[in-house]
Amino acid sequence: MSDAEGSKRDIDTVFLRILARGNSSRFKFLPPPDDPVGKVIESIAAEILAFCQTTSDAELSERVKPRRVSVRMVPLGDVSALTLYMGSSHIIAFNQGVALYLYRLARAMTPYVIVRGTGDAPPPPESEAVAVIAVLLDWMSSLVRAPLVDAWETGPREQRTAENYARMAERFVLSHEIAHIMREHLVGDAGTAPQKSSSLHDLDRRPVVQEHEADAIGAMLAVDSSSAAGIDPRAAVAGVRYFFEALKLCEAVGAVHIDDAHRPAVERIALCDKVMSGRYGRVPNLHQAADQTSDLLRRLGSAALEERQRRRVIVAARMEELLTNTSWHFGSNDPAVMRSIFDEAKSMFASSPSAVIDALQASLLDTQTFERLMRTAKSAESLEQDDRLRRHRIAHFIARNAPLPVRDALGVGFP
Ligand SMILES: [Zn+2]
C-alpha cells in the first residue's frame, strides 16, 4: 500500500469512528475507491489549491500546499463539508449526499435553463421537475440525508449544463473550506476529536465572523480559480447562487443545521453577492444568470415543497394502516402477502421515502427490547399477540429489503 492510500485509510477510520458514535451499526458504508463523484471533487480541489499557489505570500501558500490538504467523501449528516486537522495536514470531508443532491437537483432544473433553438423540442412540463425535486428533498430530509434516486434520461446539453452548475457549487463549498485553512480559523483536530465530541457537527464550531470570512474569501476564490480555468465569471456567480438556492431548499425541509455561526442561506447569499459585485463589478450583467437561476429554483422549489408535503401525508397514513392491520406470523407467512408488502413499500419509497423511514424507525425495536420481549414471553402465542413485536417484524421486513444506506441508517442487519 502506498503512503497516500495508507493515509486515506487512516482518515476513513477517524471518520467512521466519529460517525459510529452511539450506534456502531450505522454508517458502515463509504464511497468505493473509484467513486466518480469523489474523483470530480478531488480534481476541483486540486485546481483551487493550484490556483492558491500563485500568491506571493509564501506562508499562505505553504498552508494550502496540495500535499497538505486532502479531500475525502463521507456520508455526513447535516453539513455540506467540514475540515479537520490531522497529523500535519488538513482533510476536507465532503458530504457525499450533498454532492449527489447538487447534481440531481441541477439535472431536474436544466431542461428549463438551456437556450432552445427553433428546431429543438419544447421543454417538458414543469410538473415533471417538481415531482423529481419533491422526492430529492424528501430523501434529504430523511435519516439517510442522501437522494437515493437513480439518474433519469436527459439530453446531452441538459446534462452538461447540470454538471457545470453542480461543479461550480462544489467549487464554492471547497473554496469556503480552503478559506478556513488559509485564514487559520478554528479547525477540529481529528486526533482528539472523537473523545470530545458527539457528532461531526460538533467539530465544525467557530465564531460566526470566521464563517462570514470563509464565505467572502470562498466566493472570490471560487470565481477567481474558475476564471483561471477558463470559466466565465457570470457562470461562476450563477453557480455560487445555485448552491445557496439548493441549500435553502434543504433548510426548508430541516436537512441543514443552522446555528449562531452557520447562518441561513438567504443571509449568506446577500454577503456573497456584495463581495462579488465589489470585485467583478466591471463584468456586464454579472448577476443576470444568477438571478434567473434563483427565479427558476424558487418557482420549482416552492411547488416541490408543497408536493412533498402532500405525498408525505398520504404515505405516512398508508404506512400506519399497513403496520396496524397486517397480521404477521412467527413461522411462515404467505409469500403473496410478503410480495405485496414488498412492492407497495418500493412504490412508497419512490413517493415519500422520509415517511416510510420515519414509520420504520418508530416501529423497529432496539436489540435489548427485542431480546427482552423474546425472553420473557410466556408462550409462542403470547409472542404472536404482542403488538410491538408484530409491528417490529413487519418494519424489519420492509427495512431489510430497503437500499443499503437506509438499512445502515436504521441500524438494521439481517435477519
Ligand atoms: Zn465554514
Provide structural commentary.
The protein is mainly alpha-helical. It has 2 domains: 3-301, no CATH class; 326-410, no CATH class. The protein is 63% helix and 5% strand. It is built from 17 helices and 4 strands. It has helices spanning 3-19, 36-52, 58-63, 96-109, 126-141, 156-182, 193-196, 208-228, 233-252, 265-280, 288-325, 335-351, 353-363, 367-376, 380-385, 387-400, 404-410; strands spanning 69-74, 81-86, 89-95, 188-189. It has a 4-stranded mixed sheet, sandwiched between helices. Helix 2 packs across helix 6. The longest helix is centred in the C-terminal third of the chain and has 38 residues, at 288-325. It is globular. 41% of the residues are buried. Mean pLDDT is 88; it is low at 22-26. Bound molecules: zinc ion.
